[in-house]
Amino acid sequence: MAADESRADVKLDLIDVGRRFGRRTVFQGLSAEVKTGQTLVIAGANGSGKSTLMKIIAGLLPSSSGRVEVAVDGMSLNTQERRRSIGFVSPDLTLYAELTGAENLQFFGRLNGLSLTRDELITLFERVGLKGRGRDYVRSYSSGMRQRLKYAFALLHRPAILLLDEPTMNLDAQGVQIVQEIVASQKRRGMVVIATNEPREVAWGDVVVRLES
Question: Among 78, 14, 79, which residue's Cα sits nearest to residue 41?
Answer without folding.
Answer: 14
